[in-house]
Amino acid sequence: xxxxxxxxxAVLLFSLLSLVAAVIGAVxxxxxxxxxxxxxxxxxxETETPLSTGIFFASFLLFxxxxxxxxxxxxxxxxxxxxxxxxxRG
Length: 90
Prior knowledge:
single chain, 90 residues, mainly alpha, 2 domains, 2 helices, 76% helix
């Protein structure tokens, strides 16, 4: 008698979950905008020197160079081609 209720319930549940995900995404985007705007305003209150800018970019480059090989090694290590799948013909 209620065979049609399960698909309708599934569609409604999926719609509700999609709406919740969209609202959470919009809230996160708004918070990121507000935080970024506040940080940009605060960042321009102090004077910047070429030395501080250079140190910032050098440290970021050092971070990238030291973490990229580890990340690449982890990603390549997780991809392994093995013969664990055997084809048994009987």
